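Consider the following assembly input.
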Amino acid sequence: MGFADSALQAVREKRSVVVVGLDPTLDRFPPSVQPKAPQPEAVSRALVDFCRGIIDATKAAAVAVKPQIAFFERWGPPGLEALAEVARCAKENRLLVILDAKRGDIGSTAEAYASAYLDDSGLGPWVDAITVNPYLGADSLEPFLRRARDRGKGIFVLVRTSNPSAAQLQERPLAEGMPLYEAVAELVRQWGEEAVEAGGYSNVGAVVGATAPEQLRRVREILPYHWLLLPGYGAQGAGPLDVVAGFDKNGAGVLVNASRSIIYAWENRQDVDPDGEGYAEAAQQAAEEMRSTIAEAAARSAPPV
Amino acid sequence: MGFADSALQAVREKRSVVVVGLDPTLDRFPPSVQPKAPQPEAVSRALVDFCRGIIDATKAAAVAVKPQIAFFERWGPPGLEALAEVARCAKENRLLVILDAKRGDIGSTAEAYASAYLDDSGLGPWVDAITVNPYLGADSLEPFLRRARDRGKGIFVLVRTSNPSAAQLQERPLAEGMPLYEAVAELVRQWGEEAVEAGGYSNVGAVVGATAPEQLRRVREILPYHWLLLPGYGAQGAGPLDVVAGFDKNGAGVLVNASRSIIYAWENRQDVDPDGEGYAEAAQQAAEEMRSTIAEAAARSAPPV
């Protein structure tokens, strides 16, 4: 079973679209999980411990984790070992793993990345899907798309991102009438045509910021049977009503990521738990609250049958 | 002395604009440098040995090396250690190091990348410049641009890439008249304004494929005092006349990358040297020939004084 079907099954079984973004930064770790020493090896051990706690606490409410590779890579080789361990731990806990890498490069390099992240060696066995950047065009994505077709790997193409400057290029109006991000969404539709799984969804989807609900609605029109990965929930400002615009006619097709508002939820309780011993429990509650809040908003906005 | 001045000094002293792209793949390594075992540790040792040979052989003809991070990363943590060793070796041989990473991500992640590649820890001490992707807009590049302003690091923004599909998005005509890549070049001009060094060049430059000489000419008009990094020479098909379009009015401002045509030049001599013992010498000749061919083409096309 490839990514598209696995995601559908997980969303239905858990009645959840929650993705927990793993962006571990030491300065927001609770004192109880701080590394014993500043060396990359000790830091990497702390990253693993922290993320294991989050995974174990949120595995019931969430369908996937999205480790952001930069937060591991910055610690050098031991950081990448930590990432592999975290991804394996997530898989063992039946969470999908979406590697947030945003790669985009020319043919031979794209092949190297796709191999490193999606094949049987390295991180591949623990990674279900990956994010990619479209600026270099089709040939730069072909090694990823091939693995979506042949190996059932999930590919999320950046279409309209969640950051404040996203509109600077992505919403530039093209001479043909539409803004650039819509042209990218059209390409995603073409790229995804040959990677549709049994459940009707394609393995090729799009990243669309929940911070841009109007653009999200437009992308959903262009991509009716595609998974949309929605960052921007929580700390970046988007709420449940913003993400509902992304649901497809089956009430599925979206995965909503929150990173800091879940993994650092303990910060809101620092007055009663200054050492953050309950950081995992705080994450659990934040993830469960996000799950139920979105489910309720979706139910309220569902068309009457 | 920051990147822009260092590049100017190197180009003048060596009368060269050659950048040697380090894209090491085992299947093209000469038998004499093949790893002793398939494990990442042995492979990484072979990557270092191979690249050391190339660096030592090309350090007179070239001004910089451009390691492509994917070709190291694919071997996991030992691969990244190899990259650090290769970069250090290049610096010790007075070559500039341009890390080809093509990163582009939202604020907190961009900060993590910029820190990992350009600060005093990790790869930072050995990296002079880095390539970045503009699709996410200004805030995604700010952590890099800040290090261009404050620490003299070089930033090369992808403007018009050298791959076959580059035009698919980059040459889309905008409603305002120009193609997308020109709009990106205009942004690069703004971003580079506060990072101009004593020699008159900005630390913020652009990647423009030598395979697209018309677009290169246009980018040069928009970016008159900026370093342009030109991939696509050699194996990708561009020749000396193509790159000349990128030279500025001082006959400088370009860095021309060739990867496979230099580092695998030994393949053309396999009949006389089947084990590739002379791979470094072959690279030396290829780099020197590239240096002199471009210098001659530039001299012929220089405006009469």
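Residues 4-299 of chain B form a domain with the TIM Barrel fold (CATH 3.20.20.70). Ask yourself how this observation constrains the way the partners meet.
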